[in-house]
Amino acid sequence: MPHGARRPAVQTGSLTALPNARTCRRRVVNSFDRATNRERMGRMSDRWPEHLTVRPWTAGDARSMAAWRYDGPWRVYNLSAQEELPDEDDGYMAVADADDSRMVGFYCIGEEARVPGLGAELGVVDLGVGMDPIWVGNGHGVSFGRVVINYVRRAHPTAMLRVVVQSWNTRSLRLVQRLGFIDSGHHVCVQNGLPVTYVVALLPAP
């Protein structure tokens, strides 16, 4: 799709890529093992929604997001500290199945979507996106990202959109390129005591 010592905006490769997810700041962490995602998938529909929509963020969405667990290097996007859950006032919106309102991901804008040291700019909307890890890596990133971009464009038709992606995250970098974002440089900040390099990408106004 950072907080405190904020995380990156684009999270995983599937648009959990538009800063991945958490670029967004405050989350509550519980203890879950690798079986969590499989157990959740067993309780959910096994199909990707035919149509996606954007709806208001709820407390239930925040609790669901707190349970997400990414594997491999994408574990950096897992929650790692006891924090306050994000809410709609933080700039979050849910991306959901248009038929049954089931959340498949989220986006956030503004301060929540920026990493440390990256300031706001006039005419630029910072965007962070996250996708539920049970759907990541299955080819849904472009459709997910287009829904988010189109929705944000309605409210900010003349703004440039900006995302940041950790430089190692080639899957997310390919996705933002497919969505039309242009590499505009790098940004380095310190998170959890270590330097982290981000690729900054911009999507010009139509």
Q: Please, could you describe this protein's structure?
A:
- This protein has 206 residues and is α+β, with helices and mostly antiparallel strands.
- The protein has a single domain (35-203), classed as Gcn5-related N-acetyltransferase (GNAT) (Aminopeptidase, 3-Layer(aba) Sandwich), CATH 3.40.630.
- It has helices at 35-43, 59-66, 141-155, 170-178, and strands at 52-56, 92-97, 103-109, 124-131, 160-166, 182-191, 194-203.
- Strands 1-2-3-4-5-7-6 form a 7-stranded mixed beta sheet, with helices on one face.
- Residues 1-43 have low confidence and may be disordered.
Q: What's the short version?
A:
Helix content is 20%, strand content 26%. With 206 residues, the protein is an alpha+beta fold.
Write the layout of secondary structure elements.
Layout: H1 35-43, E1 52-56, H2 59-66, E2 92-97, E3 103-109, E4 124-131, H3 141-155, E5 160-166, H4 170-178, E6 182-191, E7 194-203
Parallel strand pairs: 4-5
Antiparallel strand pairs: 1-2, 2-3, 3-4, 5-7, 6-7
